[in-house]
Amino acid sequence: MASIPSNDVSENGHGNGNGPSPPRAKRPRAALISAAQIRDEFAHHDPAVARVNNGSFGCCPASVLEAQARWQRLFLAQPDAFYFDGLQPGLRRSRAAVAALVNAGDVSEISLVDNATTAAAIVLQHAAWSFAEGHFARGDAVLMLHYAYGAVKKSIQAYVARAGATVVEVPLPFPVTSPDAIITEFHAALAVAKAGGRKVRLAVIDHITSMPSVLIPVKELVAICRQEGVDKVFVDAAHSVGQVPVDVRDIGADFYTSNLHKWFFCPPAVAFLHTRKGGPITSQLHHPVVSHEYGNGLPMESGWIGTRDYSAQIVVPEAIHFVNRFEGGIEGIRSRNHEKVIEMGRMLAEAWGTFLGSPPVMCGSMAMVGMPCCLCIESDDDALRVRTMLRKDFKVEVPIYYNSRQVKVQEMAKDNNSDPVTGYVRISHQVYNVKEEYERLRDAVNKLVAEGFTSAKLRPAEKIIYSTEVWTVASTIFYGACTSQRRTVKMQETLA
């Protein structure tokens, strides 16, 4: 669909006809947005920073921020009227809009929460109770991807592992060459999880992994879970809405969550959790923050967790209005972002003599690009320090991933000089990005290579090896690995 229709639920925001009015009434579709208007919508971004990291925190246009501010003022002007008459109708409008966006069967299947991490806590909390109350046997398995989001991994440990679950990880390869490679590893890990007659109670599957960023064949993995008797499937799709098409009925998971503030232009923090209608587990799910609505269903519990700012959750229709100003609506945005991020990724890979971390078909609006091996990124700490240096010294904001060779059966990917690549940047493309930002990233890394920089220079002094013998050997290896690459960079600079 080229645009998302407005929902017909309480468009005036009134619960009984006497409540507060919403910030904006229903209105006709605006003309297509221009390049100048896009710049105006994101003029609040720091112009000094090349922000090629939409994936971490998303973005919100000025028009949606203005709508949010009107709701905030409405609450502050008369809080009682807002809470009693305006809040729930406003949330229902947003829930209905999300239901239409992801093809949910009914608005009752959609609960609004702060973020995907909260949604994970809701699902995992129920699984922990099932172990504690004897519905699951100690030792039953929970399956998750090795590249599951860090907070979700810790939630799995905090909730279900502590309650007695056996946690089995799917050791995904990276770089990855095809969806089949992931499916093969998933089958193998599922066999491990079922070994000895164990029941697999829950599979946690990412739709798009965060670091490294890879589009997972989620529909196929859900189908495998159904075939293999996995009790429940939870899809952590924190990055999906706005990056890839989402049809929750077609995917078929029991639980599906996605943030709306990452790729759908909502202010932080708002996400949704979809639960399939009519399932016996639906009434047993509860928000981790217990408030007065406890027991009245997850949508109501999530819609009232005490006094707080709910405005981000109410302006989803305004975000929909914003995306519908673009040619092709959200589908057009997704398509253009994908094309641009692949184009920019290939430009960086060519400049650095490396490659994309996954084929374009396994990318949405984010792509992994190998960094020059001579930067010698050898740990997560190295990656973070180089990222911080790029931010502070070059005004470039981009996450860096250290490939720690966790999948031992996979040979390390090598660059054009046959040297192993251990560091990758994760670039994003959103409507506000321009080519010059990626060129600044390219030039910053090339400058570091030309100057002989290595991540070792950023390490704390006590972690640097001072042994003359070891340093001589290391320097020899480093020089051999990097000389040809530096010659290439210097030649490019000369030609430029």
TrEMBL record:
Pfam families from the UniProt entry: Aminotran_5
Bias type Polar residues, positions: 1-10
The Aminotransferase class V domain, residue ranges: 92-340
Keywords, comma-separated and alphabetical: Pyridoxal phosphate
Region listing for Disordered, in residue ranges: 1-28
A GO molecular-function descriptor: carbon-sulfur lyase activity
InterPro entries assigned to the protein according to its UniProt record, in alphabetical order: Aminotrans_V_dom, PyrdxlP-dep_Trfase, PyrdxlP-dep_Trfase_major
Domain of life: Eukaryota
Signal peptide limits: none
PANTHER family attached to this UniProt entry: HERCYNYLCYSTEINE SULFOXIDE LYASE (PTHR43092:SF2), L-CYSTEINE DESULFHYDRASE (PTHR43092)
Protein name: Aminotransferase class V domain-containing protein
Phylogenetic placement of the source organism: Eukaryota, Viridiplantae, Streptophyta, Embryophyta, Tracheophyta
Gene this protein is translated from: LOC123078313
